[in-house]
Amino acid sequence: ARSLDKLYNFADCSGLHLIFALNALRRNPNNSWNSSNALSLLKYSASKKYNISWELGNEPNNYRTLIGRSVNGSQLGKDYIQLRSLLQLIRTYSRANLYGPNIGRPRKNVITLLEGLMPFAAGRLALWLPDVVNTYTPGKKIWLEGVGTTSAGGMNNLSDSYAAGFLWLNTLGLLASQGIDVVVRHSFLDHGHNHLVDQNFNPLPDYWLSLLYKRLIGPKVLAIHVAGLQRKPRPGRVIRDKLRIYAHCTSYHNHNYVRGSITLYIINLHRSRKKIKLAGTLRDKIVHQYLLQPYGKDGLHSKLVQLNGQPLAMVDDGTLPELKPRPLRAGRTLVIPPLTMSFYVVKNVNALACRYR
């Protein structure tokens, strides 16, 4: 109970919503889920009026490898139905969101598990894996959970450095262009070297990158046309592999920008600067630049970053610094320094696709 209190209070104070994954490995002799412990936890949470969403199990496709015991898709589907029935018995959670399953990489055993689960639980869960999900429930929202830049906790001085951001930002761009609704980063603290803050809660480079993404990037993905490439416009654009450009409507929650603004985010993996000239309706608009570069002598391996030349750090234990853009005059060519990541908000475009939610 004390551990749950601390976890919930942390999420609540941070303005976050907690999704709690219940233990799916407590099994009865017939391999059905033993929900007695979960029911105790649900009742305790309800007594505290905790606003929590729920999930059952973690990577059930790996149970045989990890503990020599397996749960097939149809059984897991029945377990989820049982969990939904428990939630409906408790007034606080009768309408709580139920997520899952968190099933790891889309290999053959994962697809088999999903195909067994979907007939039982398709109408009750938020699932992922587009092909299987759309076969059973077209339009069901798809989440990716436990996403990090590398597996197995990553590598010190790499997975927690500026260099890791190239893969993280590109992952966000690709997943958004493929229609993934939510990406849950793994992890915030104290798991290998993929975490977003260090042991003293000082933000690491991927934290600042994620913060800018959340503040500037809206859910609507825009197609990009690059002059000179004989390809149809599409969401997200890879140019000669090393220059990657994505475009979205600017976040509706950012009150510094009016509806209709758009945000580009650009990854330059070249060892030379690149120039991009905006065309069409974007040509005569003021642009706000948010350029992230490593800070300090460690270069790409640095755990510190600078925004438009100013190092980023917490003001105090509870206060983030102001993320100030650098205004660029209308018509100016965007100059992308080598080996950098950047965001560019094109103001007041009045893009039709971005006027409404």
UniProtKB/TrEMBL annotation:
* Any one Gene Ontology cellular component term annotated for this protein: extracellular matrix
Single biological process term from Gene Ontology: extracellular matrix organization
Q: Which InterPro entries match?
A: GH, Glyco_hydro_79
Q: Which GO terms describe its molecular function?
A: hydrolase activity, acting on glycosyl bonds
Looking up Pfam families in the UniProt record yields:
Glyco_hydro_79n (PF03662)
The family line of this record is: Belongs to the glycosyl hydrolase 79 family.
What is this protein's name?
Answer: Heparanase 2 (inactive)
